[in-house]
């Protein structure tokens, strides 16, 4: 069964705006990862945040993790048309397995 | 990161036939995984394939339907057997190189069963 639930399911913004996607999960985790998928292709790893971390940055990406609320958010700043894709969160446990959420479809309009 | 290739990239198959998907990694890895992504859905783990041992299948997936081989540390195959239209999906392999538990994904195989 799916561990993560992304919110919103779809998001449409204008180029230059910020995009925020949320992910909630149900069980304890070792880490939480965010991936991007363009048009049904392979997944591109964006960022990993460990359960003992609260915030992480990578370029225009900012990820937060609140283990007490079992939730994470991904912020993309100054979005570009090329950011248009589906974004998935995935939770990792001690067994190296990843459990994926349903994803958020982000559309960035030029 | 890891460079992962999959063959074929896409295929259209007839009901009742089988298709073997190959996954090749540019370096040795211990853990390889196979996922299925049904149309418009998220990814679901099919099985974990470690070299030198039998694949471990997730609930709802069985070896007779999805036999997996892992002959060495850089290669694995997934066979989708006796296919039906419900097997139409993207099949992705991934690897864990032990680097902070990040998994790297192949480009996927888009399968359509008629």
Mean pLDDT of chain A: 91
Q: What is the SS-derived class of chain A?
A: mainly beta
- Oligomer kind: heterodimer
Calculate Rg of chain B over CA atoms: 13 Å
Task: List low-pLDDT spans of chain A.
Answer: none
Largest sheet of chain A: 6 strands, mixed
Ends distance of chain B: 36 Å
N-to-C order of helices and strands of chain B: EEEEEEEEEEE
From the helix content, strand content and strand pairing of chain B, which structural class follows? mainly beta
Q: What gap, in angstroms, lies between the N and C termini of chain A?
A: 36 Å
**Which band does the percent of strand residues of chain B land in?**
over 45%
- Radius of gyration of CA atoms of chain A, rounded to a whole number: 13 Å
Find the count of extended strands of chain B (DSSP E, 2+ residues): 11
Helix content of chain B: under 10%
Overall shape of chain B: it is globular
In total, the number of strands of chain A is 11
Q: What best-fitting shape of chain A do the alpha-carbon axes yield?
A: globular
Could you tell me which chain pair has the largest interface and how many residues each side has?
A-B, 24 and 25 residues
What do these coordinates show?
Chain A starts with a strand and ends with a strand. In chain A, strands 2, 4, 5, 9, 10 and 11 form a 6-stranded mixed beta sheet that branches. Chain A has no helices and 11 strands. By secondary structure, chain A is an all-beta fold. By secondary structure, chain B is mainly beta. In chain B, about 0% of the residues lie in helices and about 50% in strands. At the A-B interface, β4, β5, β9 and β10 of A face β4, β5, β9 and β10 of B.
Task: Using brief descriptors, characterize the structure shown.
A: 110 residues; six-stranded mixed β-sheet; five-stranded antiparallel β-sheet; 11 strands; globular; B: 114 residues; mainly beta; four-stranded antiparallel β-sheet
């Amino acid at each position: 069964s799916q561990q993560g639930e992304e919110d919103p399911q779809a998001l449409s913004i204008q180029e230059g705006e910020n995009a925020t996607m949320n992910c909630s999960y149900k069980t304890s985790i070792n880490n939480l990862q965010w991936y991007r998928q363009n048009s049904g292709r392979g997944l591109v790893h964006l960022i990993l945040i460990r359960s003992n971390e609260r915030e992480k940055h990578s370029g225009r990406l900012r990820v937060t993790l609140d283990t007490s609320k079992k939730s994470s958010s991904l912020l993309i700043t100054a979005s570009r048309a090329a950011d248009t894709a589906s974004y998935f969160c995935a939770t990792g446990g001690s067994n190296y397995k990843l459990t994926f959420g349903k994803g958020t479809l982000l559309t960035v309009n030029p | 990161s890891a460079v992962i290739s999959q063959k074929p990239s896409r295929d259209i198959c007839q009901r009742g036939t089988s298709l073997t998907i190959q996954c090749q990694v540019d370096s040795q890895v211990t853990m390889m995984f196979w996922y299925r992504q049904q149309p418009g859905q998220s990814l679901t783990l099919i099985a974990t394939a470690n070299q030198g041992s039998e694949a471990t299948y997730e609930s709802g997936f069985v070896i007779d339907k999805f036999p997996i081989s892992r002959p060495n540390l850089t290669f694995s195959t997934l066979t989708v057997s006796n296919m039906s239209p419900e097997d139409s999906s993207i099949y992705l392999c991934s690897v864990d190189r032990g680097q902070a538990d990040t998994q790297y994904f192949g480009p996927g195989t888009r399968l359509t069963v008629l």
